[in-house]
Design a protein that fits this description.
With about 775 residues, the protein is α+β, with helices and mostly antiparallel strands. It starts with about 25 loop residues before the first helix and ends in a 5-residue tail after the last strand. Helix 4 runs antiparallel to helix 6 and helix 14 runs parallel beside helix 16. Among the domains are: about 180 residues, Penicillin-binding protein 2a (Domain 2) (Alpha-Beta Complex), CATH 3.90.1310.10; about 200 residues, Beta-lactamase (3-Layer(aba) Sandwich), CATH 3.40.710.10; about 130 residues, 2-Layer Sandwich (Trypsin Inhibitor V, Chain A). This is Penicillin-binding transpeptidase domain-containing protein. Belongs to the transpeptidase family.
Length: about 775
């Protein structure tokens, strides 16, 4: 009989009886132990591999990383190069300034009171105290909090003095001023403020160029940063007893010697600004250029801006409108657009219809190609010409009654559109386009200026009879002012297209010449004979024709005016039409050296004129009248000019009255005695003042006499003869500027430099500018 199952038996206390003895560790536990052992073995292998990789395979790389984490790297800012004018006058330079920073970690460590720091620094730095406290409190554990950039030496000295005084005052030992640091850097200064602002450009807070030469030559000017390497701890502090330090000196930037002449630039800006104000011009552009070398003596855009404060808009009304915009995104967008417009160098970046100034190019091409001669005539000008048959399309002449039959010289002087339309047709599209390309209108001039635009012309393939007609008299092609004056220079300098440039030399930090930028002749465009013919025609236009507003007594000047419609979709008679008035002049006309181009965009002159000859011609005349003597060109006066040329007034105070009159007469002046004495006690104008000959010098003979005051009459709109008589009757003298040729009967006073009604001393010289109102383009 089978015995009972032992698994069913109970022991004496009612529990299951013990089973057969087994091993003390279960199978599951052995598995877990194996996994753990395997993990540790794998970890050990990885650790060994990484150690091998660190110490053997990539020892250098990881060592460099460790070194980077232990090294403090400080930048040494190089000195940015200086920008000079052609006579080594400083136009832009950098000076030492300081950035004010704070270490709030240091301030907390040494118990510096933030409120005390904010109260005193806000006064010295002219900052808002509450904003400064907030800035410091928001960064309670920082080694670097920027407080203010680029403070000048007096301010930096004031901060240092305040800290020293505070820390040396008894009772402040437990809470000293610490953690305020002055870091030396540099700031760009422009000694002349607004001078050549669109040419020079300016730098940002990091010292990099934003516009102009500062941007174009940024890599040349900025130099190479230096470095100071030293060991630091994990908190960013330099270690005590630092045994490691390496210094790599900064390399200062190169300097630029420009072709800009401060004297000529100032003259250009003065007269361009006057024209913008007097004729309510939206903007004005001007360039003075050496026609033979391509050197730019002056380049300006008006209105301009202050290079030392380039983010303040000159247009306060626009600034207020932008400030009133509530949407921040839109406000920033409008502000950026306003800045870019204000900074823009429009003489190289804007393309404009040149109008009749371009006729110089058309005439040069026709003569040089043999398609015309100076005697070439066409169908008589009746005031308009038909340029298409279906539909009927006519183009008008500025002289609505027509010019009749003209030769080339007459056509150029009278600026006859129908003549030049027929001249363009006679050349044909291929020849015309060949010369467009040769004169440089299909490419950039290559001037060393940022953001030069490319002129827009009709391509050879698309040049129809209509577009050729309008292109020939300067309406369809849109060109930059720099391209226009470069092409005109080629037309008058003997035929060479030169590359314009603004920088003449590059200097290293020791003043040694690194690079010289000379004349680059791109190609011969027209023959020397053709160029001489063009010069002769344009000189005659200034002497005897419609360019007389640019005449300069004593000098041979040539020139051409232009007036173009900005909106070609509108009729020239439409009240909504706007215009561009321009004039280009050059001298000496028999051997040209200097050219001046003035462009007035959208004039709204009180005279009612929009013509370049009337508005821009006098600006060219004024600039040449000052620039030519400055450049060393001696005047050669005609007998008529010599009779009224300005001369210094002799000193006759103390002389007997009759003797004084004789002295004045011998010097070419008139005299008028006021008083009952016999000896001159006072004269006006004073001795040494230059006034026109034939002026009247007032001689006072009473003891203690002073000048008699008189009122200036209004002579605007009067002829030279009438204006002179009116001023003489008032006891005043006249200085005539502009054109003094009364033969046409259309020369009148356009403006006077002393306002009518002003009380002045008897004998005062009133400068009156006369314009030829018949000048058309």
């Amino acid at each position: 009989m089978k015995g009972p199952d032992k698994r069913q038996q109970l022991n004496e206390d009612g529990n299951n009886p013990p089973t057969k003895p087994q091993s003390s560790v279960s199978f599951g536990m052995r598995v877990r132990a194996g996994i753990v052992a395997g993990f540790f073995a794998l970890f050990s292998c990885l650790l060994i591999f990484n150690l091998f990789n660190l110490q053997v395979i990539d020892e250098k790389g990881y060592a460099e990383q460790a070194e980077d984490q232990q090294l403090k790297d400080e930048t040494i800012t190089p000195n940015r190069g200086v920008i000079y004018d052609t006579n080594m006058k400083v136009l832009a330079r950098s000076a030492t300034v300081w950035d004010v920073t704070a270490s709030t970690r240091d301030m907390a460590t040494y118990g510096t009171d933030i409120d005390t720091v904010a109260r005193n620094l806000s006064q010295i730095l002219e900052m808002d105290e509450t904003e400064l406290v907030t800035k410091l409190m928001e960064n309670p554990d920082s080694n670097y909090v920027l407080i203010k950039r680029k403070v000048e030496k007096p301010v930096a000295d004031a901060i240092t003095s305040w800290m020293d005084e505070y820390n040396n005052t008894e009772g402040n030992e437990d809470h000293p001023i610490t953690g305020i640091y002055l870091t030396q850097t540099s700031k760009r200064y422009y000694p002349y403020g607004n001078l050549a602002s669109s040419v020079l450009g300016f730098t940002n807070v990091d010292g990099n160029g934003v516009t102009g030469l500062e941007l174009y030559y940024n890599e040349t000017l900025k130099g190479v940063e230096g470095r100071i390497l030293s060991t630091e701890n994990a908190w960013g502090y330099e270690l005590a007893n630092n045994n490691y330090q390496a210094k790599y000196d900064a390399q200062d930037g190169y300097s630029l010697v420009t072709t800009i002449d401060e004297t000529i630039q100032s003259c250009l800006e003065k007269y361009l600004y006057n024209a913008v104000v007097e004729h309510n011009v939206e903007r004005g552009m001007g360039i003075v250029m050496n026609v033979n070398t391509g050197e730019i003596y002056g380049m300006a855009t008006e209105p301009d801006f202050n290079l030392n404060d380039p983010y303040t808009l000159y247009d306060t009304e626009l600034a207020n409108q932008i400030a009133a915009i509530e949407d921040t995104t839109e406000q920033n967008k409008q502000l950026q657009a306003a800045w870019q417009s204000m900074w823009r160098n429009r003489a190289v970046s804007d393309i404009l219809f040149p109008g009749s100034v371009f006729k110089v190019i058309t005439a040069s091409a026709a003569l040089d190609s043999g398609k015309a001669t100076v005697d070439t005539t066409f169908e008589a000008c009746t005031g308009r010409i038909k340029v298409a048959s279906n539909p009927d399309v006519y183009m008008n002449c500025a002289e609505h009654s027509g010019h009749g039959v003209l030769n080339l010289a007459q056509g150029l002087d009278n600026s006859c559109n129908p003549y030049f339309i027929q001249l363009g047709w006679q050349m044909g599209a291929d020849t015309f386009c060949d010369y467009l390309q040769a004169f440089g209108f299909t490419e950039r001039t290559g001037i060393d200026m940022y953001d030069e635009a490319v002129s827009q012309t009709v391509s050879r393939e698309n040049m129809t009879a209509v577009s050729l007609a309008s292109s020939a008299f300067g309406q369809t092609s849109a060109v930059t002012p720099i391209a226009m004056i470069t092409a005109i220079s080629a037309a008058v300098n003997g035929g060479n297209l030169v590359q314009p440039h603004v920088v003449r030399q590059v200097l290293d930090s020791d003043g040694n010449i690194v690079e010289t930028i000379g004349t680059t002749v791109k190609r011969q465009v027209i023959s020397e004979t053709t160029s001489q013919t063009i010069c002769s025609i344009l000189e005659d236009s200034v002497d005897n024709g419609h360019g007389k507003n640019a005449h300069v007594p004593g000098y041979r000047v040539g020139g051409k005016s232009g007036t173009s419609q900005k909106n070609q979709g509108l009729s020239g008679e439409d009240d909504e039409q706007t215009y561009i008035a321009s004039f280009v002049g050059f001298a000496p006309a028999d051997d040209p050296e200097i050219a001046v181009l003035i462009v007035l965009d959208n004039p709204n002159s009180p005279t009612g004129s929009t013509y370049g000859g009337s508005l821009a011609g006098p600006v060219v005349q004024n600039i040449l009248s000052e620039t030519l003597p400055y450049l060393g060109f001696e005047p050669e006066y005609t007998e008529e000019e010599l009779a009224v040329v300005a001369s210094p007034v002799p000193d006759v105070v103390g002389a007997l009255a009759n003797n004084a009159l004789s002295t004045l007469h011998n010097a070419g002046f008139n005299g008028k005695i006021v008083g009952s004495g016999t000896t001159v006690t006072y004269q006006y104008p004073a001795a040494g003042i230059s006034v026109n000959r034939q002026s009247t010098i007032i001689l006072y003979t009473d003891e203690g006499a002073t000048g008699t005051m008189v009122q200036v009459p209004n002579v605007v709109g009067q002829s030279i003869r009438v204006a002179t008589e009116m001023l003489e009757a008032a006891g005043l003298n006249i200085s005539i500027t502009g054109t003094n040729d009364e033969s046409s009967g259309t020369v009148v006073a356009a403006l006077q430099r002393i306002e009518p009604g002003t009380e002045v001393e008897m004998g005062t010289v009133v400068e009156v500018e006369f314009h030829d109102t018949s000048a058309t383009d």
